[in-house]
């Protein structure tokens, strides 16, 4: 497993070019934490200018199409993301699963398209509140992992860290309601078991991130939890001040 925590910001449908100054501030601050791998997924429109300006952090997309090109109005392919400077893409975010009816099979195909295009991929999974209250959280998430991850054949050449799974309980996203650390630990262990079942030893390099209302106050406890390899951060990644506080919770500032 990669030693560096992976802290990824997801700007969702937020940010015009005026926000590039904020992204540059995040980039400058991230350079002071060499032990933390930091990445940001701005909207498509900002990927190229941000990737060109970023020195210390990776730039990614928030979604991609399964096809490399073709008659898919409004969609963006994984090779197009790579072409404008992205090095990774988030797939299967619960907002896409809900708003666009994305199935596990589609998420898996997108993840495989991303791998084919040379991108890293973050595959999102997570249960709804109804599923948790019904005692089905682990079963739901385990099934999502089984069916959404790229197949073992698709990752034959996979470098450690190329695939991450983000556990994001749907009820914790953007709500200010964060999962209990003990529930996060239990779910990450369940996800790790599914990753091992899918990939065997090769799966050791797959990081599991937590996402859902991570902020400056709760980041340290979540990031220190057993099995948590980083965080996927929505709202708190939009401002350098709050995002850098999360980066700081993940690592030590260099003194040089
Ligand atoms: C997300 O959308 O991936 C997310 C975790 O959002 P927030 O941090 O705002 O809950």
CATH class annotation: Alpha Beta
Q: What is Rg?
A: 17 Å
Q: Which CATH architecture is right?
A: Alpha-Beta Barrel
- Measured by DSSP, the beta-strand proportion falls in 5-15%
Folded structure, characterized:
Keywords: Cytoplasm, Gluconeogenesis, Glycolysis, Isomerase. Its main location: cytoplasm. One of its GO terms (molecular function) is triose-phosphate isomerase activity. It is found in: Cytoplasm. It catalyses: D-glyceraldehyde 3-phosphate = dihydroxyacetone phosphate; L-erythrulose 1-phosphate = D-erythrulose 4-phosphate. The longest helix is centred in the last third of the chain and has 19 residues, at 181-199. The chain is an alpha/beta fold. The protein has helices at 20-30, 44-53, 78-83, 94-99, 104-116, 129-133, 137-148, 181-199, 219-224, 240-250, and strands at residues 6-10, 37-41, 58-61, 88-91, 120-125, 163-167, 207-211, 230-233. The model has no long low-confidence stretch (mean pLDDT 95). Strand 3, helix 3 (78-83) and strand 4 (88-91) form a beta-alpha-beta unit. It has a single domain, classed as TIM Barrel (Alpha-Beta Barrel). An eight-stranded parallel beta barrel has the order 1-2-3-4-5-6-7-8, surrounded by six helices. The protein starts with 5 loop residues before the first strand and ends in a 6-residue tail after the last helix. 39% of the residues lie in helices and 15% in strands. Helix 1 (20-30) packs parallel to helix 10, helix 5 packs across helix 7 and helix 7 runs parallel beside helix 8. The site of phosphoenolpyruvate has 13 residues, from strand 8.
């Amino acid at each position: 497993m990669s030693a560096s925590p992976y802290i990824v910001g997801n700007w969702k449908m937020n940010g015009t070019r005026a926000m590039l100054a904020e992204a540059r501030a995040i980039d400058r601050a991230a350079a002071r934490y060499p032990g933390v791998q930091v990445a940001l997924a701005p909207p498509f429109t900002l990927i190229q200018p941000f990737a060109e300006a970023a020195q210390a952090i990776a730039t990614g997309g928030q979604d991609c199409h399964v096809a490399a090109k073709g008659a898919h109005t409004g969609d963006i392919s994984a090779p197009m993301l790579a072409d404008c400077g992205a090095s990774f893409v988030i797939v299967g975010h619960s907002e896409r699963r809900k708003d666009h009816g994305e199935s596990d099979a589609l998420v898996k195909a997108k993840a495989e398209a991303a791998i084919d295009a040379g991108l890293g991929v973050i595959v999102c999974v997570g249960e709804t509140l109804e599923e948790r209250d019904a005692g089905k959280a682990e079963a739901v998430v385990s099934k999502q992992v089984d069916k959404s991850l790229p197949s073992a054949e698709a990752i034959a050449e996979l470098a450690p860290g190329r695939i991450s799974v983000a556990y994001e309980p749907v009820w914790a996203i953007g709500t200010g309601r964060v999962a209990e650390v003990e529930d996060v630990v239990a779910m990450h262990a369940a996800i790790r078991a599914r990753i091992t079942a899918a990939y065997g030893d090769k799966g050791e390099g797959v990081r599991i991130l937590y996402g859902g209302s991570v902020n400056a106050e709760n980041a340290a406890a979540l990031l220190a939890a057993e099995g948590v390899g980083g965080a996927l951060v929505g709202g708190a990644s939009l401002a350098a001040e709050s995002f850098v506080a999360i980066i700081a919770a993940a690592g030590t500032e260099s003194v040089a």
